[in-house]
């Protein structure tokens, strides 16, 4: 039986809900923080305590909480057409308008859109699309997907296999599709002693070429990558990485899938991270800030070459037999259209670059803190990595306990951050102001000092 909680809502949560990415037994002891409402960069629990949402929910609430324009757009669409599917030659106006808008926003080569409900479903769908096309091309052996260690591409069986985080694989029997995970492109952590950043890139490219030669380019369908890795710890790529990788892929007839589920719509200060890093992707995967997570939606934007292969094969066998009940959901698409209007009218993409410089500069002050090994990021996404030894970069043992303590102290100080092991991530709403950035980081700083005192007092060994 669950432990009795004074708040009946908390008790009912513990009794009935299984939470994602949560220690279920630990949750039985602690119960939830029940978030009741949101306004701007703040959320408030059911006891009235306010928190700066330094993670924009889950990397996603670009326009902040409580944007009435989006709620009104959803209400209007609910009243007109609350749902319809897009199977068997059916469509709806919001889905058509959003597809057109995304094609106009994205690079010129990307001309077609397929809607899903989440980034996980989108990346799962991408794999199926590529397998479908390669079968139609008479290349049924071309099925292997290249990914990277520490990558996050979702949590379904297929997208979870693409993900390169051991926790997401353990006891789920993943990976279970043909996937090869390459070295994580994080120079600070994985660069060798005396190795320059450029030499690190050379080594990663050499590894890519070696794996392609080993597996055979005729067996590899695509490489999938986040331009800047998010849930693996906010990891910008090393200098020259993406142009070099892209050249190797093109030379070997291997497609490039850019997962911009976190990066897209202004997070790093450009509309898409592909622009910043010079990536010419064959497939672009979008979600999260597409609707600011006010409604579930993801989009796959892909090249005409891929579309023609799908279309020809669907004509040959009678159908493209893939889709979801809510693909192109009219309310979600209406929400996305209004959300993109808000982002454009408030110039959130343009100002993200300016405010990102402020965030990166303020966080950089923690580089001298005794627990901090690295501060990194770009635009309005950043991470502070905690280490046991600043000189050797040695991790705490066990990994994650110090990060979890800091995460909980953040709640006490009114800021919701994310602990990825001992890497503390920041990804605030794009509407955040410079003064709010200062307050967010100040609250984090107090939590960090509490954590340093706990470590110094032997808390980790207790």
Automatic annotation (TrEMBL):
Keywords: Aminotransferase, Transferase
Protein's recorded name: Aspartate aminotransferase family protein
